[in-house]
Amino acid sequence: MAVYTDINEVELKDFLQAYDAGTLLSFKGIAEGVENSNFLLHTDRFPLILTLYEKRVDENDLPFYLGLMQHLAERGISCPLPLPRSDGALYGELCGRPAALISFLEGMWLRKSEAKHCRELGAALARMHIAGHDFDIRRENALSLKGWVDLWDKSAARADEVQPGLENEITDELALLEDRWPVDLPEGVIHADLFPDNVFFIGDELSGLIDFYFACNDFLAYDLAICLNAWCFEKDGAFNVTKARALIEGYQSVRPLNAAEIEALPLLARGSALRFFLTRLYDWLTTPEGALVVKKDPLEYLRYLRFHRSVKSAGEYGLS
Amino acid sequence: MAVYTDINEVELKDFLQAYDAGTLLSFKGIAEGVENSNFLLHTDRFPLILTLYEKRVDENDLPFYLGLMQHLAERGISCPLPLPRSDGALYGELCGRPAALISFLEGMWLRKSEAKHCRELGAALARMHIAGHDFDIRRENALSLKGWVDLWDKSAARADEVQPGLENEITDELALLEDRWPVDLPEGVIHADLFPDNVFFIGDELSGLIDFYFACNDFLAYDLAICLNAWCFEKDGAFNVTKARALIEGYQSVRPLNAAEIEALPLLARGSALRFFLTRLYDWLTTPEGALVVKKDPLEYLRYLRFHRSVKSAGEYGLS
């Protein structure tokens, strides 16, 4: 929850000159997103989200993120649609920061999801993968194998502060994943961060996907593995195989997995668990006490990682 | 800026059962207000503000605050209108806190106001005073003379930490105000906190007054004196007499001040400056370092107080 940059109506009206967005009636900072500053604008025509990109987002990646949202929305995926400026650009500058106007998407994220929601999610994810197929900008996944090694190099020496034995366990895990990581699975644009707070529902119906600021090119099945971690563990740490089955069935109802993807799923889930473990561990070790950000427990993802290590085949995720 | 209480869609839908507000489509925490938690809701019928009252607001005062907004809105004052529940109550309970649904008011507060805005403000303030005349709930001003003495008792011993000589200066000031404070000026419901961030404009037109959570019964001219302090000093500390004249002329175009009010204006302005000095001083001395709240400088209001002390008559505020 954050508004990092405050804006005033004079600067905002000036910024809006470049858009055909109507007359500004109100704007309010909203307490969502931890990477950027977000405002809800009302004009006499429609509500809009104004996003100011703070330093954790690389401006060079904005054509990918914003272009992808436009590409997906044009293909019927319900996601935020950037409003182009009169000169065609998808973002401008406000208060010295890159800033974009984006359509307001109705819906709420589920604090308590059920299997039926996971089924909806799986189908929406597969539709997104298919719609992203012909998007022509590429962005490497900075948080795949190479990124994990970099993060681990910065954290390994202090890992045993968090739990004794961690340094050896994760070093071994990383070596195994480097050795066995797949090389020939179907690739494409993935969301890479499809946690519950990035999926909106109205009632039980999925109304949209948001926050494409980790999207990149990678194995499509890796995106599904991220959702297995983000959606299918209960608060007590138990893996809910009913949700996992619904998620995968929903996905396959739109895009069937091939044999190699199915075989790789447990390994992809280990990698995905390691990825979130490593970023959380790094933040845990480097975020000062008393900072405004809520630190997330890395050990949650260590438990998920250990679970997937025990999985012998994708059948244990409910695949029939 | 704050959202103190997080809510989820299950609790919120349950809360909305008691209202005829349509189907919930989205809700977002907004970064406004320092006393309460505020959310912007969209239903299929209209946008709404949901306010959860945190502990600094006394639940016993809610019938006054919410009833006043309803009373004023019914008399044509543009202010947030509480949506009554089906049982007629103006607030319910959500997450263990009193909570109200209030109409969304379009408009933006001015970061840079001009004399013409002060004129609009003066007229709106006078209209509010007249509309509040027959409101039948009373609330004493907890931050008048008696409240100032209480605050000063808690801060006096440490005041010289902020500026040497303050203890003597404020003790003398308080004694003088206790001695000379008016007793027979026209009274009524005052807003008591009409700073720029509580006054919305669309373009140059005043679109509404918000945040009635300091409203109370007191001298009407005291409300005008609060606005003199809140609107008519420039960032460098200079008193802008053009703004003051416009503010008072705007007020008198709707409700002319009587001779006693005009004579009392410099003293009321001293009292008002002291009131904000004392609350800021208390917060300054008691808010822990590193707290989320931005501490406001009490010395700003000491300078205002000293200015008003030098004023011989209301003519110096631009009154003709």
From TrEMBL, chains A, B:
Listed Gene3D superfamilies: 3.90.1200.10, Phosphorylase Kinase, domain 1
GO molecular function, one term: homoserine kinase activity
CDD domains membership: HomoserineK_II
Catalyzed reactions per annotation: L-homoserine + ATP = O-phospho-L-homoserine + ADP + H(+)
Pathway(s): Amino-acid biosynthesis; L-threonine biosynthesis; L-threonine from L-aspartate: step 4/5
GO biological process terms held by the UniProt record: threonine biosynthetic process
Family annotation (Pfam families): APH (PF01636)
Span of domain Aminoglycoside phosphotransferase: 27-257
Entry EC no(s): 2.7.1.39
Keywords for this protein: Amino-acid biosynthesis, ATP-binding, Kinase, Nucleotide-binding, Threonine biosynthesis, Transferase
Family from the record: Belongs to the pseudomonas-type ThrB family.
UniProt name for this protein: Homoserine kinase
